[in-house]
Amino acid sequence: MVGVRGISAPYIYVCTRMRVRKAKLLPKEEYMRMLNMSLAEITRFIGETEYKQEIDELGTTFRGIDLIEVALSWNLAKEYQKIQEITPGNLKEFTQAYLRRWDIQNVLTILRGKTQGVKSGKIKEILVPAGSLDSTVLDRLLSEDNTERIIDALKGHRIYSVLAREYPSARESGSFSRMENELYKQFYAEIIAEAESGIKGGNLFLDFIRLDIDIKNLKTLFRLRADTFEEDAREMYIPGGALLVTDFTFMNTIKDQGEFIDSLKVKYRQKLLISLLDEMKGEKTIHDVEVRLTRVQLEQMERMSKRNPISIHPILVYLEKKKYEVFNLRALARGKESKLSSEKIAEYLVM
Predict the structure, then answer these.
(1) Which residue in 9, 92, 169, 301 has its CB near the most CB atoms, within 10 A?
(2) What is the dihedral of CA 123, 85, 131, 114, to 10 degrees?
(3) CA angle, 94 then 151 then 126, to 5°
(4) Given this model, what pLDDT does residue 277 score?
(5) φ, ψ (nearest 5 deg) of residue 8
(6) How far are the Cα atoms of 26, 61, 63, 149, 170 from residue 48, in angstroms, in the given order?
(7) In the beta sheet, which residues pair with residue 8?
(8) What was the pLDDT predicted at 278?
(9) Average pLDDT over residues 43-49
(10) Are 270 and 258 in contact (CB under 8 A)?
(11) pTM as predicted
């Protein structure tokens, strides 16, 4: 069966389902309400939403912040797995490629947790088995008693070569940031190659990936400024976006904030981004900058999705917005658990 303009009915169906799912995500007003709730009230509220099944199932085993952490991770993983099941053809390939970033996040979470002596059960609470490493593999990694054995257990996986190369220096320095950056460089290089391989719809997938790289590089530049980074900035650069490595390294040398912002505006053409950059001429905290850049990215993704309603865009927009819903609920719960003020918690929310 073929739909309008030769688009197959399964493609129309899944893109429609994504819009329905997106409409069920929590609006800003609900987050504002939760800012005035206690942790127990937030748990009850979440239990009346799309997370009800997980809250009910886990409520006999977990309490308080642990219940929320595990319920959110379970829900996100199940939702991502379900989307992969219902997504047809090339859209499935793009979706699965995009979700491989969770392999990086999960493995780094395990390595960091083990290095810091965190119990395996606590690490497992925040893992999201949405990539190519399923829950069985992640459980096996968690069962290993040291980080070297965890990396050895990943032999044959696409991220193994980077882990094996970078881990010795990461262990010596006590920082995983360079290793994390190298893993993402490999991830983006692989999915750009897949998008450029001639597969139908690859150009639209590539638009999404390039925007993701642009935002990641921008966040890195602002972070480098905040850290007064003196080392070779080229190591932190991710190829594939609007900035060339020469632009990236030059901008990292600019001391004046206004001149730095003006240089960025020359390279980025999106109106939303230019408007945001103008706002950043005044000094902002790095956290504020990152949250604002994430909001602009989501808004730009939404516009792309509306321009291409039957494509990979509606799927990826939902994946990202669902991720940030979980991020926001987790930030709210952790903030309440830590007795932070509502104003402080609000600064961490991506709305």
Answers:
(1) 301
(2) 20
(3) 60
(4) 87
(5) -70, 150
(6) 12, 19, 16, 42, 43
(7) 2
(8) 86
(9) 96
(10) no
(11) 0.92
